[in-house]
C-alpha cells in the first residue's frame, strides 16, 4: 500500500478557541486536546485518503508554564525539546493524571478509523531540563550516571564543557547550568546564540567531535541502549512507526543497530527519516529506514517550479537522481511544520497554484506522500502568533487557533460547515487526489514512464509535464499544466513507451479524469497526439479504457 501521511499538531488542530491573542496563554488562546480528535475527525481524515496520522508533539516537552521560560521557545514550547521521553504532553489531556490513557484512547480511535499512528522520535537532542518522572521501573534516566567533569565519554549521555557555565545574551532568569552542556545543533560553546537551538542539549552517541569525530562504538554506548528502550516503549503503546527528527545528525551505525532490534519485535514498525543530504540516503536506507525526506530534491524543485523559478521539465532530473529501489523509499511533500505554507505570501499566495505539483508528489511513483493539516484548506500561515512572527509557517511554539481548521472542525463536528466555496473545492481536489494515490493500483504498484522528453510542438516543457503509470490492465495518463493561463496541450506518446510498458496501441480510447469525472476520447498511439485543454494550474489523471 502507498502510504499517505496526514500530519497533525494536536495542540493546534483540536483547538476550537477563536481568541487568537498575540502571545496568549493557554488559558487565553486555548489548547487542543487528544479527546477532541474524535471519531468524526478521524473518519474525515481517512475519507481524505490518508493511511497514517502523524501526531506531532505527543511526547512531553518543555513549556513556559512547567519549565524555565528563558530556555523555552514560546509559551507552548517546542515539540522537539523533550523533557520526558516516557510521558505524554499534559497540555493535550483533559485529565492530566490520565494523559497516557487518553493517548491510548486516541491510538485506539485512530486504528478504528482505519488509520495507522506515527509520532516523533527525537534522537539528537532533548530539552536542557530533561528529567523523566515516568520512566518504567528499572530504566536509567538520560544523564543518570554521567561524569560532567569529562568533556566526552561514550559512557556519558551528554557532551559537557567542563569548568564553563552556560551563558547567553538573553536574561536566563535564574536558570543555571554548570558545567554547560553542548547545544543541540552541535554548538560546542558555553555561550550559544539566540539563533542556536539553545533550548536543547545534544545527545552523545559515542562520537568524539572534540577529538576529530572519532567513533567509539564498542562497547555499545549508553545512549544507544537508552534510546532503543524508548523506541520499544512507544512501539508497545501500539503506535505503528516514528518520524525521526534530524536523523542525519545521529550516526547511521546507531540506526542500523536500533532499527534491527525494534523490527525484530515489531516487524511492521516504520521509520521515516528527516534527512537532507542525498549523498547519505543509501546509508540510512541500508540501516533500515523505510522512507527519507526528499526535501532538497523533489520538494525544493516543485516549490521552484510552482514559484516560476525553474522549468517544469527539470522534475525529471529530480526523480532520476534516485536509482532503482531507492526511488520508492522517498517521502514527497509540499508542506510540513518546518516549511512555509503554499498559500502564504512567501510561497505562491494561493493553495490552488500547487495542484499540479501535488499531483506529481502523489502519483509520480510508489513513494510515500505527506499532507500537513490545513494544506487541503489553503491555510496561509500568515499569523503573528507570539514567539513565531509572520513567516508563512504555522507556529509550533505558541497556543493558537487556526482559522481554516476551525472552519472545517466546526466545534468538533468536523463537517466543514464553515468553509468557503474555495476551501471546499480545494479539499475536494485533495480528497480525490489522495484517494487515487491510495487506491489506484497503477499508482500503488505500477511502472512509471516519463514522456516529457518526447514532446514537441504544442507542448511547452517549461510549463507542462506528462507521464504514464501502468500496472497490468490499469493505465493512467497524467498531464499537468503549471502555466497561469488556460492552455491547449498536445501530448505525444513515444513508441518506446508502448514497448517499455508492453501496452497495445488503440485507434481510439475513452478516458476518465479521476479528479473531475470528465470523460475524453482520443487516439492512444504514437502516431497521433492527445489533444487537451487544461485550465491554469491544473492537471488530469486520465484512466484509459481500451
Brief digest:
This protein is an alpha/beta fold. The chain has 2 domains: 4-128 and 218-439, Glycosidases (TIM Barrel), CATH 3.20.20.80; 446-545, Golgi alpha-mannosidase II (Immunoglobulin-like, Sandwich), CATH 2.60.40. Helix content is 24%, strand content 20%.
Walk me through what this model shows.
This protein is globular. It has 14 helices and 24 strands. Helices cover 24% and strands 20% of the residues. It has an eight-stranded parallel beta barrel with strand order 1-2-5-12-13-14-15-16, surrounded by four helices. It has two domains: 4-128 and 218-439, Glycosidases (TIM Barrel); 446-545, Golgi alpha-mannosidase II (Immunoglobulin-like, Sandwich), CATH 2.60.40.1180. It has 546 residues and is of the alpha/beta class. The protein has helices spanning 10-13, 26-29, 39-48, 99-112, 222-236, 252-265, 281-286, 295-306, 315-320, 355-363, 403-409, 421-439, 441-445, 495-501; strands spanning 4-8, 52-55, 59-61, 82-88, 116-121, 125-127, 160-161, 180-181, 200-202, 207-208, 214-215, 241-244, 270-273, 291-293, 330-333, 368-372, 447-450, 464-471, 474-481, 487-491, 506-513, 519-524, 530-534, 538-545. Strand 18 (464-471) and strand 19 form a beta hairpin.
Furnish the topology, listing elements before pairings.
Blueprint lengths: L3 E5 L1 H4 L12 H4 L9 H10 L3 E4 L3 E3 L20 E7 L10 H14 L3 E6 L3 E3 L32 E2 L18 E2 L18 E3 L4 E2 L5 E2 L6 H15 L4 E4 L7 H14 L4 E4 L7 H6 L4 E3 L1 H12 L8 H6 L9 E4 L21 H9 L4 E5 L30 H7 L11 H19 L1 H5 L1 E4 L13 E8 L2 E8 L5 E5 L3 H7 L4 E8 L5 E6 L5 E5 L3 E8 L1
Parallel strand pairs: 1-2, 1-16, 2-5, 5-12, 12-13, 13-14, 14-15, 15-16
Antiparallel strand pairs: 3-4, 6-9, 7-8, 10-11, 17-18, 18-19, 19-24, 20-23, 21-22, 21-24
Helix pairs in contact: 5-6, 10-12
Amino acid at each position: 500500500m502507498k502510504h499517505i501521511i496526514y500530519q497533525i499538531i494536536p495542540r493546534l488542530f483540536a483547538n476550537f478557541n477563536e481568541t487568537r491573542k498575540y502571545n496568549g496563554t493557554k488559558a487565553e488562546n486555548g489548547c487542543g486536546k487528544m479527546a477532541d480528535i474524535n471519531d468524526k475527525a478521524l473518519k474525515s481524515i481517512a475519507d481524505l485518503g490518508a493511511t497514517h496520522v502523524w501526531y506531532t508533539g505527543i511526547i512531553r516537552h518543555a513549556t513556559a508554564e512547567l519549565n524555565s521560560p528563558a530556555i523555552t521557545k514560546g509559551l507552548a514550547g517546542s515539540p522537539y525539546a523533550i523533557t520526558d521521553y516516557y510521558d505524554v504532553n499534559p497540555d493535550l489531556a483533559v485529565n492530566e493524571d490520565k494523559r497516557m490513557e487518553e493517548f491510548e484512547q486516541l491510538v485506539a480511535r485512530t486504528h478504528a478509523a482505519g488509520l495507522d499512528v506515527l509520532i516523533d522520535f527525537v534522537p539528537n537532542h532533548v530539552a536542557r531540563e530533561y528529567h523523566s518522572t515516568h520512566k518504567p521501573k528499572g530504566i536509567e534516566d538520560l544523564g543518570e550516571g554521567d561524569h560532567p567533569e569529562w568533556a566526552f565519554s561514550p559512557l556519558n549521555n551528554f557532551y559537557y564543557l567542563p569548568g564553563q557555565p552556560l551563558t547567553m545574551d538573553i536574561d536566563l532568569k535564574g536558570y543555571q547550568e554548570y558545567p554547560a552542556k553542548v547545544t543541540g545543533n552541535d554548538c560546542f560553546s558555553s555561550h550559544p546564540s539566540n539563533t542556536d537551538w539553545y533550548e536543547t542539549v545534544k545527545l552523545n552517541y559515542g562520537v568524539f567531535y572534540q577529538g576529530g569525530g572519532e567513533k567509539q562504538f564498542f562497547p555499545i554506548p549508553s545512549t544507544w541502549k537508552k534510546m532503543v528502550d524508548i523506541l520499544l516503549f512507544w512501539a508497545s503503546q501500539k503506535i505503528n512507526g516514528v518520524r525521526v527528527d534530524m536523523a542525519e545528525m545521529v550516526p547511521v551505525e546507531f540506526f542500523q543497530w536500533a532499527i534491527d532490534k525494534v523490527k525484530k519485535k515489531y516487524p511492521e514498525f516504520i521509520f521515516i527519516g528527516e534527512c537532507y543530504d542525498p549523498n547519505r540516503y543509501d546509508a540510512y536506507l541500508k540501516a533500515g529506514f523505510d522512507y527519507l525526506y526528499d526535501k532538497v530534491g523533489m520538494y525544493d524543485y516543485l516549490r521552484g517550479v510552482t514559484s516560476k523559478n525553474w522549468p517544469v521539465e527539470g522534475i525529471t532530473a529530480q526523480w532520476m537522481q534516485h536509482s532503482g529501489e531507492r526511488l520508492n523509499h522517498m517521502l514527497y511533500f509540499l508542506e510540513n511544520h518546518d516549511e512555509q505554507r503554499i498559500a502564504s505570501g512567501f510561497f505562491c499566495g494561493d493553495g490552488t497554484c500547487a495542484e499540479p505539483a501535488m499531483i506529481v508528489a502523489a502519483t509520480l511513483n510508489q513513494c510515500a506522500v505527506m499532507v500537513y493539516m490545513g494544506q487541503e484548506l489553503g491555510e496561509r500561515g500568515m499569523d503573528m502568533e507570539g514567539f513565531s512572527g509572520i513567516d508563512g509557517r504555522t507556529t509550533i511554539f505558541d497556543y493558537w487557533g487556526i482559522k481554516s481548521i476551525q472552519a472545517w472542525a466546526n466545534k468538533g463536528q468536523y463537517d466543514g460547515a464553515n468553509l468557503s466555496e474555495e476551501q471546499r473545492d480545494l479539499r475536494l481536489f485533495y480528497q480525490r487526489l489522495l484517494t487515487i494515490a491510495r487506491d489506484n493500483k497503477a499508482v500503488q504498484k505500477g511502472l512509471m514512464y516519463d514522456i516529457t522528453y518526447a514532446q514537441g510542438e504544442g507542448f511547452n516543457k517549461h510549463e507542462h509535464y506528462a507521464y504514464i503509470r501502468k500496472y497490468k490492465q490499469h493505465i493512467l495518463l497524467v498531464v499537468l499544466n503549471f502555466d497561469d493561463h488556460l492552455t491547449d496541450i498536445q501530448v505525444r506518446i513515444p513508441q518506446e513507451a508502448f514497448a517499455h510498458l508492453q501496452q497495445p496501441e488503440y485507434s481510439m480510447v475513452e478516458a476518465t479524469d479521476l479528479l473531475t469525472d470528465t470523460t475524453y476520447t482520443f487516439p492512444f498511439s504514437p502516431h497521433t497526439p492527445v489533444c487537451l485543454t487544461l485550465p491554469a494550474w491544473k492537471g488530469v489523471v486520465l484512466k484509459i479504457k481500451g
